[in-house]
Amino acid sequence: MYKAPVICPVCGNKLHIEKLKCSNCNSKIEGEFELNEFATLSNENIDFLRLYLLNRGNLSKVSEILGISYPTALNKFNKLLKDLGYIQKETFEEPNEQPQNTELEKKKIIEMLANGAISSKEAIEKLKKLKGE
């Protein structure tokens, strides 16, 4: 099956569904049915959401699987939330603000430690590096 288009190719307005059909008994239901927000997601966002759900919301694990940094995974997640209409902007931090980036890195290190990806010694070393020691 093909993914249902959500935008009219002629005028650019949002499409709605008018007919549903059962593939088993051929029953048809007609009316106006609205697509939910998940139907409007790009394939990339759907794949990211699936991976996020399969990993029980663990962005550290998602970033590890995708081979991207935790902040990049967080930005992809924020873009997903924006595309769903749940937030207004894609990122919560300003790219030039060092303190928030440091906080993100600390959280990433703590999550990695909690998930067993690094030892406590490695976590301490990484935290010291962040502090500049």
Automatic annotation (TrEMBL):
Residues 8-39, 41-86 form the DUF2089 domain. This is DUF2089 domain-containing protein.
